[in-house]
Amino acid sequence: MAWVESIQRAIDYMEDHLLEEISIESIASEANASAFHFQRTFTILTDMSIGEYMRRRRLTLAAQELSRTNCKIIDLAYKYGYDTPEAFTKAFRRQHGVTPSDARKYMGKLKFYERLIIQVILKGAEPMKYNVLERESFQVVGIKKEFSLVNNENFIGIPKMWDQVNSDGTCDKLARITNGQIKGVLGVCAVGTNPGKAIDYWVAAEYNGEVPEGFSTLEIPAAKWVVFEVNGPMPDAMQNKWKQIFSEWFPTSGYKHAGIPELEVYSDDDVNKDDYYSEIWIPVK
After folding, report:
1. What integer pLDDT is reported at residue 253 of this predicted model?
2. 2-104 maps to which CATH number?
3. Ramachandran quadrant class, 198 (left: phi over 0; alpha: psi -120 to 50; beta: rest)
4. HSE, side-chain direction, 13 A CA sphere, residue 180
5. Residue limits of the HTH araC/xylS-type domain (predicted)?
């Protein structure tokens, strides 16, 4: 259970430093992980980014202090990391639905977010099918975009990217040129120029040869891979499998993430079919 303990250590670190400016890199180091992969793991497990968790917790504590003390609102704003009372009021209203002044008068209900505690829930009703394989380094070609992890903007932007590449013929072209071991169009999550705050997402294909015009190339390092079967219509089947992997499989597997890009593999079929087949490739060590 070292994997669970490391994540809990990072959460405890966040809680101990809620009123300070701390970097995602320092948080991730508590879990012995890179900023990119800790942020991604945290988001998959909790459906929110690290920044969103800390914002919710700060505004929860601010609301509690507001209702228990006579502290001035301007002082609370500065204490909980806001440059102006106006910025604090805007964030407070967005979370709680009322202004700090109204909350002090007990007008309206407040939304409280408790401190996170990571627990492992053992499940056996839905088996996970996977196999383990090793591969030398290989090349993928495709197009990439950078997506911010702030406010889960990547969850909005990546589906739009898929809509675009499906409509403009990019996916069809990638499917035609695929000539490697992996058959299908790939979604590749990779570390970008701003680790922990943004990701590079590729729509690509494994390809051996000179890079075709209009595409860029990414080298995938040699690694041991755990390949999970995904069955069901997109995007729900893929999203549910990611959550199952990180909440059920990783905590008890004995593996750690290898820190290189992850792959989603999409077969050439109707993605809306109940039995649509796809895969998730996770590099491990």
Report:
1. 85
2. 1.10.10.60
3. beta
4. 20
5. 8-106
What is the C-alpha separation between 165 and 142, in angstroms, rounded?
10
Domain boundaries, the chain: 2-104, 130-284
**Closest Cα partner for 44 from 248, 252, 265?**
248
Question: What is the rounded CA–CA span in Å between residue 101 and residue 89?
Answer: 9
Q: How far apart are the first and last CA of the chain?
A: 16
Q: What is the pLDDT of residues 32-47, one digit of tens each?
A: 888 888 888 898 888 8
- Look up the CATH superfamily of 130-284: Regulatory factor, effector binding domain (3.20.80.10)
DSSP H stretches of helix in the chain: 2-16, 24-30, 35-46, 50-68, 73-79, 85-96, 100-104, 153-167, 170-177, 236-244, 250-253
Task: Outline where 111-258 has alpha helix (H).
Answer: 153-167, 170-177, 236-244, 250-253
Q: How far apart are CA 11 and CA 53, in angstroms?
A: 10
∠240-245-248 over CA atoms, to 5°?
Answer: 105
Structure tokens at 69: 């003390």
For residue 282, the tally of other CB atoms under 10 A from its CB is 23
CA distance 257 to 183: 23
**Cβ-proximal residues to 169 (8 Å cutoff; 6+ apart), any chain:** none
Structure tokens at 99: 């202004």
Grouping H, G, I as helix, E, B as strand and the rest as coil, residue 239 is: helix
- Give the C-alpha separation, 201 to 146, whole Å: 6
